[in-house]
Amino acid sequence: MQVSTSLSDALERYLDLTSEQMKVTASNMANVDTPGYKTQGFDFEAEFARQMQSTVLSGDANVAQVQDVDGLVSRPDGNNVSMDRESMQLAKTQLQFRLGVELLKHEYSGVMSAIHAEAK
After folding, report:
1. Is residue 17 within 8 Å of residue 48, measured between CB atoms?
2. Could you tell me which of 19, 18, 24, 97 has the C-alpha nearest to residue 67?
3. 37 - beta bridge partners?
4. CA distance 107 to 102
5. Exposed, middle or buried: residue 13 (CB in 10 Å: 0-12, 13-18, 19+)?
């Protein structure tokens, strides 16, 4: 039996997006010394809103649309990855992930309380 609510479904998408953001940031950090590499990213809020508006997402529609980040300063080798920017992005994403987990724990705690109250 699967227990899900509209909030838990939204939180699942939120956590999936934070995981995707962490992967993108890790990829950027891993390529800090790759000549010509351009920083990748996506607009988290816009992507979350897009996914929430879609009632059924499957396959590629559930994946964030990653693209080059504009407006960053490039080094002479063409690479524009900034470890300071990526570190800040990683810290922000970790906080978002922890928030999502706490909200999901709270949601399931409410469901468990309802189940236990029904069993009494």
Report:
1. yes
2. 24
3. none
4. 9
5. middle
